[in-house]
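Q: Given only this backbone (111 positions), what sequence would you predict?
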């Protein structure tokens, strides 16, 4: 593993090692529809942390679960999450923001 634990490369390598350890690719764990269901499950756990007033440590753990799944989905679908992230950030930084019902929304506002 890369010594820089903050890098997305090191994190992706760790997720790849997890996939390899359990042979996720060979045992259905990289099926995209299944992964979407798992990600929805983790999003629900994040939601429960907020709605049930759980502590920040619990919220952080559930966010990590979702991030690990997202990184694994990039592995399964064979794309660079790193490249996708920076391409999207560049787009987001050009977008307008509006206040909608008291909350900021950053979007293309096409309609
Ligand atoms: Mg979880």
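A: Predicted residues:
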């Amino acid at each position: 593993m890369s010594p820089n634990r903050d890098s997305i490369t090191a994190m992706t390598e760790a997720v790849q090692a997890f996939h390899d350890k359990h042979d996720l690719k060979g045992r259905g764990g990289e099926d995209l529809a299944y992964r979407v269901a798992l990600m929805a499950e983790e999003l629900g756990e994040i939601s429960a942390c907020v709605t049930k007033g759980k502590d920040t440590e619990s919220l952080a753990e559930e966010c990590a679960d979702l991030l690990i799944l997202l990184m694994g989905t990039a592995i399964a679908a064979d794309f660079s999450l790193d490249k996708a992230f920076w391409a999207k950030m560049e787009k987001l930084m050009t977008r307008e923001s509006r206040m909608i019902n008291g909350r900021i929304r950053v979007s293309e506002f096409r309609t």
